[in-house]
Amino acid sequence: MIDFDGAVFDLDGTIADSHYVWKKVDCDFFGKRGRRVPLNYNQEIGSMSFRDAAIFTKEKYGFSESADEIMKEWYSMAIEEYTFNVKPKPFAGEYIEYIKNHGVKTALCTASPKELFEPFLRNNQMFSSFDVFVSGTDVLRDKGFPDIYLLAADKLGVSPEKCIVFEDILKAVFGARAAGMRIIGVFEGAVSHEERKKIKKEADGFIYDFSMESLEKAGKNLI
User: In what order do the strands lie in the sheet with 205-207?
Assistant: First the structure.
C-alpha cells in the first residue's frame, strides 16, 4: 500500500528517455569546435542547472562564447528533439497517473529548463500529471544539494519525510537524501555499471522500469 504523500520525479533518464539527446548535443557542440566530448563530461554536468553547466563548460574548456551563447546553441539543438521525438520511459506516465489516482501529489524536479521539459510533457500528454514543476533555475545549487527537493516539497505542501524521490544519478540520490526524503533509483542505460551499483547501495530501492512487476518487486510500498 502506498505510504507517501508526495512523489518527486526527475526528468532525464528517469521518466524521459532523453539521454541520447544530450549525447547528440554534446557531440555536435564539441565537434563543431574540432574536439571530442571530454571523458566523464556527462557525469560532471549531470546534476547541474542548464546555466551552471554552460558556465562550467565555458570555464573548464576555454570557449570564447558566453554562457548565454552556449545555452542558446544547446537550446536550438535540443528543443526540437524534446518537442517531437523524446518519449517517456516504459510505463512512467501510467505510474504517475496511478499514484495521482491514489491521492499522491506529484512534482517534476529537473535540472532542465521549462523550454525543454514542457514541450516533452505536452507532446506525451503528461503535463497535467504533475501538480508542481521545479527546475534548476529555481535554486542556487545543483541536485547534489537538497535545495531543489526541499522547494518541491514546499510547493507540494508535503513534509520531506513524506515524499519519495525517483532519480537515476548518484549525485541526485545524495541530494534527495540530504533533504530527508526516501529515494528510489531508476535504471538508466547511460549510467555506468559502477555508478549504478552505488545507486542501488545508497537508495532505498531500485526499479528497472515503472511496470507494476518491477515496482512490486522493489517493494517499498510503491503501489
Answer: 132-135, 105-110, 6-9, 163-167, 182-186, 205-207
Between 113 and 31, residue with greater pLDDT: 31
Enter the C-alpha cell of residue 28: 555536435
Question: Do 213 and 142 share a structural domain?
Answer: yes
**Domain count within the chain:** 2
**pLDDT band of 198, cuts 50, 70, 90:** very high
Over the stretch 93-147, which tens digit does the pLDDT of each residue have?
999 999 999 999 999 999 888 989 999 999 999 999 999 999 988 999 999 999 9
What pLDDT sits at residue 148?
97
Q: Is there a single domain that holds both residue 111 and residue 27?
A: no
Residue 175 lies in a domain: yes
Residue pair 135/49 in contact by the 8 Å Cβ criterion? yes
User: What are the beta bridge partners of residue 46?
Assistant: none
pLDDT at 7: 98
Residues 97, 158, single domain; the answer is yes
- Which letter does DSSP use for residue 91 in this model? T
In angstroms, how far is CA 156 from the centroid of its own chain? 18
Residue recorded with cell 541526485: 172
Angle, vertex CA 46, rays to CA 111 and CA 202, nearest 5? 100
